[in-house]
């Protein structure tokens, strides 16, 4: 694995842990992997009973821009935060609603986080 890609996955891991702690969702076990995926930045799979989430960062997508990797990590943790809203008869429009909420979180909490990080 290239140095850049390796470094980006490390950032991804750190950001996932940061937001899991921040949102106080330690009851979820989160496993991370780094593989080539099609047409997405990352993928998340849930085991509901076990409260386990498997997140895969798309190795083929991974950008040089740290901020994009940070945003992807934030986005995936938001899916875990909102996971209790999901049900077994999960519909496409629910997914759209979930993404609308996540966009709001990205444009508020995440943007503030980046501002704070720059001041450090
Ligand atoms: Zn998403």
Gap between N and C termini? 30 Å
Strand content: 15-25%
Number of DSSP helical runs? 3
Helix/strand structural class = alpha+beta
Gross morphology: globular
The count of strands amounts to 3
> Mind telling me which CATH architecture this is?
2-Layer Sandwich
Strand order of the biggest β-sheet: 1-3-2
Major sheet characteristics: 3 strands, mixed
Mean pLDDT: 90
What percent of the residues sit in helical stretches (DSSP H or I)?
A: 40-55%
Q: How many independent structural domains?
A: 1
State the CATH topology: Zincin-like
| CATH class type | Alpha Beta
* Chemical compounds bound to the protein: zinc ion
| Low confidence ranges | none
| Rg over CA atoms | 14 Å
Give the ordered list of helices and strands: HEEEHH
Account of the protein in words:
The chain has 120 residues and is of the alpha+beta class. It has 3 helices and 3 strands, in the order αβββαα. The chain has a 3-stranded mixed sheet with strand order 1-3-2.
Give the key terms.
120 residues; binds zinc ion; globular; alpha+beta; 3-stranded mixed β-sheet; 53% helix; Zincin-like
Strand and helix map with partners:
Layout: H1 3-22, E1 29-35, E2 42-47, E3 52-58, H2 66-81, H3 92-119
Parallel strand pairs: 1-3
Antiparallel strand pairs: 2-3
Helix pairs in contact: 1-2, 2-3
Bound molecules: zinc ion.
